[in-house]
Amino acid sequence: MTGTEVRPLRRDAQRNRERIIAAAREVFAARGFAATLDDVAHHAGVGVGTVYRRFPTKEALVEAVFSDRLEDLVTLAEESLAAPSAWDGLTGFLRRSARMHAVDRGLRDAALSMDEHHFVQAGEHIVPLVEQLMDRAHAEGTLRPDAGFRDFPIIMAMVTDLARHSAECRPDLFERYLELVIDGLRARPDNGSLGTEPSEADVRGVMRECVPPLESRRR
Amino acid sequence: MTGTEVRPLRRDAQRNRERIIAAAREVFAARGFAATLDDVAHHAGVGVGTVYRRFPTKEALVEAVFSDRLEDLVTLAEESLAAPSAWDGLTGFLRRSARMHAVDRGLRDAALSMDEHHFVQAGEHIVPLVEQLMDRAHAEGTLRPDAGFRDFPIIMAMVTDLARHSAECRPDLFERYLELVIDGLRARPDNGSLGTEPSEADVRGVMRECVPPLESRRR
DNA sequence: GCCGAAGTGGAGGATGTTCCTCAACTTCGG
DNA sequence: CCGAAGTTGAGGAACATCCTCCACTTCGGC
């Protein structure tokens, strides 16, 4: 009683589907979720209709392209947890994931949509890992105590936003300011005070605000 | 031979002009340069046509509203230069100007448009002041040597961008991350290295990218 | 080869946004 | 009182994006 007969695609259709996904990867990398399905279609050398036939909504395509890319972030976090020094693990993760987000704006948008339907799963994987990275650095005494794991996504949002704005002239400029932030994260006797930590809702709010809507007009 | 007869406005017209500027101040503060002249008109309780009669382009209105507001930044910088400690002067300027930009998004957009035609003058006033603030802190030994005055606008852009994204849920959230950056700016023996300083062109590029176009369709 | 089902293309309608004009009307003030 | 100055806001022009639709092409089992 499988309601869904999973008829395989015709050979040419399958080829086009793959072309579309490849094109989407490129286009989303360059323009993020703001990219148009028309854009993707042109890049794939395919009519718009074909894209809409294969992926009825932008969400569907985005999910197809990025659900596994997000797993890369998870493995990166796991690797970083294995670092001998907690500080190096944490800052390495910051640097490397920021670089990934800078190179692939679609990945950034996906990561910042983590509480959205499609990506919750990856989100649930990553959050505790980041939490651990922070905890270990706290325990080690290298990370300032008033920085919490909720600061992580906001720092990422802030820094990759800069990456977005400098993409045309200096795609690597964000690294400079990330280093500044990282140096600011170090535990020091005379650090200023950071004020109240953001709430879960604040984080969500900022993340949502940093990503293009991705909504469908269809109802 | 004054080609421009400066006929004074009729009383009611003058009143409307002022209403429009007041409304523009509010609307631009809330939505930045992205605000519409239609928006301004409604807020002023005036027809759109009236706005366009008084200010033929958005540029004209923006200039009327912000050219003196930018002077506030200049005086703030001058005050900060008078601070007894160079570090406190510099960081105070960072904090206070960031707060001004967070409260008034139009001011932010104006400040980030400093190389644009209208605001060059204010720009020419501020740049050397910021330079002095930095130099003094360098001389004092409190500011890390590898941070230059060109980092200032980029830090401001980055932090106020965050302010923009958190405006709805936590308008003050940017302060937390500004503190982080400020702590990162402190001279310390074991600071990481920042990499190459941005060029003048990089700064310009980022600033332009951070502000809505403000272009007119008219030619 | 043939033919029906599967697949394709891309012009174009629907919808939305912003800019700005203009012709009929209102108000001011000498 | 009347002409000049001012006002209004519907609506046209320009643009962007989404997505549909149907005449057409291609596949692949027979």
UniProtKB/TrEMBL annotation, chains A, B:
Keywords: DNA-binding, Transcription, Transcription regulation. Residues 14-73 form the HTH tetR-type domain. Residues 36-55 bind DNA. InterPro entries: DNA-bd_HTH_TetR-type_CS (IPR023772), Homeodomain-like_sf (IPR009057), HTH-type_TetR-like_transc_reg (IPR050109), HTH_TetR (IPR001647), Tet_transcr_reg_TetR-rel_C_sf (IPR036271), TetR_SbtR-like_C (IPR049445). GO terms for molecular function: DNA-binding transcription factor activity; transcription cis-regulatory region binding. This is TetR/AcrR family transcriptional regulator.
